[in-house]
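We give the chain.
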Amino acid sequence: MLKLDDPDIFRTVLESLQTGVYIVDDDRRIVFWNDGAERISGFLRQDVVGRRCRDNILVHCDENHTLLCGDACPLTETMRDGKARGIDVYLRHKEGYRVPVKVWAVPVKDQEGRIVGAAESFEVRSAAEKTDRGNRLASTQCPDETACLADRGSLMARIDTSLTAFAERHVPFSILRVQVNHWEHWEARYGHVAANAMLAVIGKTLLNTARPVDMVGRWTEDGFLGVIAYCTADLLENVGALLKKIVQSAGIEWWGDRLTATFSWGGASVEPGDTVASILERAEKSLELSCGESRDCAPLVQEVR
């Protein structure tokens, strides 16, 4: 007979769950990290157990790129008031790209009811839909090898299909162009291997941020393009600003430094009479204007030691 009062049984089950679970003590030091946490975050148990959750590990942020550390951390709030809470956040994968997750934090209490820690569970938002999208991309035999991104041909085909849907059923969509600023200087400074790693991280972050109905792919060596479904002109600016914030929170660890890059973006929403060439031309002009005006007014590369 199964003995449910055996703590080893519960620990074994908890360790093997594919939902990410970790537990911290009252100093927010990680004391437990399960298989699901390893799978979703890329961090192994030996990478994190014994470290504090604020030690630049998952680096939770919200959709406005606000870091949820310190007092804003769900675990901290739960340990303070004893209330369970759920929140949608982006965590940073060990490889540097952002992953959208649903987080649940609950207090851990001792036999006297005192709060002695907290537990957090997390799972990828819309995981099944994203897996299905990845399978569909793979079936076209044209995904980007480093990030399961659509290639230029697939993007052109999606734009053409979207134009047909707009002409026949008035289904809106927009084109979004994302360009890494000063890429040639970035690659010259850090090398081809680091450049490829950074592009893979950017691509994965864009793919994870986009919805299953959208398509994102490599457009140029240093740029990406998204076909954003159901996106009208009045929504495009918000979508572009959001994606830019999330992407700029991604980065790679490189010889002791954390490297990130800055971006510009431009876009165009479908108009009556558009062709593939005309909407792409407007998106490129929008990007050129963005690059020419500001280049983000930010450093070429940010290093965080």
User: Anything to note?
Assistant: The longest strand covers residues 98-109. Confidence is low (pLDDT under 50) at residues 131-143, 294-305. The chain has two domains: 7-125, 128-304.
